Amino acid sequence: MELFKQTAFFYSITGVSIFCIGLYGLIAYDHFIRKTIAMNIMGTGLFLALVALAHRGPEGTPDPVPHGMVLTGIVVSVSATALLLGMVVYLFLETGATDLKGLIKKRERDK
Amino acid sequence: MSEGYEWLAIIILLSMIGGLPRIFKGPTRADAMLAAQLCGTSSVAILLLYASALEKPFLNDIALVFSLLAAVATVSFVRMTWHAPEEVDGDH
Amino acid sequence: MVIIDYVSLILAGIGTIFFMASTLGLLSFPDVYSRLHALTKADNVGLGFIILGIALRSQEVSELMKLLLIWVLAIISSCSSCYLIARAACRMGIKPWKRP
Amino acid sequence: MNVSAFDCIIAPTLILLAWLAMRIKDLFVGIVLFILFGLLTALTWVELQAPDIALVEAAIGAGVVGALFLGCLGIIESRQGIYQFPMERKRRSLLWIPVLSLAAILCWSISQLPPETQGLGNLVRNSLLDSGVTNPVTAVILNFRGYDTLLEIGVLFLAAVAIVSLRFFEPAKLDSRLAPNSRVFLFFLQLLTPSIVLVSAYLLWQGTNYPGGAFQAGAILTGGGVLLLLAKVSLPLDYRNPWLRLAVVSGFAGFLLTGLGMMGIGMMFLEYPVTYAKWVIVLIEILATVSSGLILLTLFSGCAGFLGITRRGGDGTL
User: Fold this and answer.
1) B29 close to B87: Cβ distance less than 8 angstroms
2) Second label for D308, Cα 20 to 30 Å away, from A9, A84, D196, D271?
3) What ranges do the domains of chain C cover?
């Protein structure tokens, strides 16, 4: 338990919890927008763990390489979010469905 | 001296978290957005206090970005997402 | 210098009190319009006092100007977004609360 | 370093917000909670001594991401009515078992890590002197990890290509969807737009000395662009226009061509001559700012219905 009083381990455990909440949400909920939120939350948890573990350098100076990785990761996750939301809008306008069940129903109706 | 600022930042953080119930209580969507806006302003204040306490002036830049873009979420809410009729009574 | 440090801390403390008052108003006021009123207190006065307190300690003119810019931006964005919310609320037919 | 009071408050709040953003019934409230989650994450980056990440999170989280989600929700709800929440909890209660065991495995492996490590920090600081910029993270991004940055701009560019290839081509007709402008809003924009351009240029220039840089500046520009679009200002977002396509591709292409040019004069790909490193980097950053701002604005317009879907014989409305 002494280990988790260190900032690095404290925040990496926080990051793991957030990641797992996001993973749960990604699988458990149907609506595409909520899935997108869940994916973002997962990503943030991952970044949190990564940056926190970069915090273990000598004299408390953080390691800049994971920071650069996280910056890139944030850009990638924003692009992915925007692309997903664009596809959600497109799919909704084409089929009227906002989740997989709606899509399946729409397909059965069309048959 | 700088501990004073850090404690003030913690108090503001607590009062920001204290405003969260308004998001769930509503009753209108605008109330949730108001709570979010208060959180934005509070984080500007927290960043400024931290910048002063830790003597790291580039934290001011982050505060500047926050206050610059504070209106974007609210304006996009008002112009794009607040259209459906809702229950209009206050919760008195 | 010491006196200026204390004055700055006191001013920042006054700003913090405004933030707490704003949260209290947000939680306890009865309708959107009065909550808007509570909110703008934090934006204008609370942040203003905190920035005043911090500005007393800043050493460079550029830092001072940046702090001033932050405050002005916070004021204009809070007043116009609050105006937009109030206008939209009015259009949606939300009636202002009256003492029953 | 040990945990402070600030950490003890902010970490449980982050977990709580993430949990509530998943569980809350109203999707709109979930989005607002996610915006707040982003805000608190930015504060956490500051606490973890990563101000550059905090700056990106602030620029992205406060501006673009919230507008993306709210715009997308706005389109869906205006056609479908307020969204109702269909979730079956009974069938999925067993999902907790794998998720919790994953969490336990991750926690265990983190606890096995050594409490202090050298990392790559020293390596970076030693070669920093050769790279022409003074801020470690910018140096990492533009010199040592030039490949990653190339891929980053490449990913943004690909996202823009993907959005446009969904036939989001020309500006949509909006008059029926957006309420008329008020004079207060227009006056606010007149004050804010110059400040946005100013702050964006400032951050770009600071990028070589302090945390900041191209992507942050571009994201702030996008915030301004979102406000202008919401005020029904018609921005030149017509993807049949070749100049717009050129501007969008310029960041990626500039990066790639500079790297190839350096190879042509006998250096490594993405290696810069020591004497000109700063100016080459600034030039590339300016191109990257403009093109990432435009790309993010395109992505927003696609998600929020400001770019209409062009169908065969259609009129571009959404």
Assistant:
1) no
2) D196
3) 2-91
Which of the 8 DSSP states describes residue D168?
Answer: E
Question: Pick from C22, C31, C69: which is nearest to B64 by CB?
Answer: C69
pTM here?
0.91
Please say whether the dihedral angle defined by the alpha carbons of residues B36, B42, B47 and B50, taken in this order, is positive or negative. Answer: negative
C90 touches B: beta carbon within 8 Å: no
Half-sphere exposure of B64 (CA within 13 A, CB side): 24
Q: Using N-to-C axis directions, what is the helix angle for D183-206 and C61-91, rounded to 10°?
A: 150
On the question of pLDDT at C58 being above 50, the answer is: yes
Inter-residue contact A11 to A48 (CB < 8 Å):
yes
Tell me the C-alpha distance between C58 and C60, whole Å.
Answer: 6
- Looking at residue D133, its amino acid is V
- Enter the ipTM: 0.93
For residue D223, the chain C residues in CB contact (below 8 A) are none
Query: What ranges do the domains of chain D cover?
Result: 1-80, 135-318
Q: Going by C-beta distance under 8 Å and a sequence separation of 6 or more, which residues neighbour residue D37?
A: A41, A44, D14, D17, D18, D21
Backbone angles phi, psi at D128, to 5 degrees: -60, -35
Third-level CATH fold of A2-110: Helix Hairpins (1.10.287)
Task: Return the SS3 of D2.
Answer: strand
Contact D62 B81 (CB under 8 A): no
Q: Where are the domains of chain A?
A: 2-110
- How far is CA D232 from its chain centroid? 23
Q: What is the pLDDT of residues C22-35, one digit of tens each?
A: 999 999 888 889 99
What are the extents of the domains in chain B?
A: 2-81
Q: Identify the CA nearest to B1 among candidates B70, B78, B67, B55.
A: B55
Q: Do C80 and D179 touch (CB under 8 A)?
A: no
pLDDT in tens, B2-39: 788 889 999 999 999 998 998 888 788 889 999 999 99
Query: What's phi and psi for A69, nearest 5 deg?
Result: -60, -40
- Residues B49 and C11: their CA atoms lie apart, in Å, by 12
- Beta-carbon contacts of residue B12 (< 8 Å; ≥ 6 apart): B42, B45, B46, B49, C16, C19
> Does the pLDDT at position D314 exceed 60?
no
Count CB neighbours of D31 within 10 A: 28
Instruction: Give me D305's structure tokens.
Output: 């219905």
- Look at B34 and C39 and tell me if their CB atoms are within 8 Å: yes
Three-state DSSP class for residue D222: helix
What is the dihedral sign for C-alpha C64, C68, C71, C77? negative
Nearest to D153 by CA among D11, D41, D295, D22: D295
Q: Contact, D179 vs D103, CB < 8 A?
A: no
Can you read off the two tokens belonging to residue C17?
């009190």
CA distance D9 to D13: 6
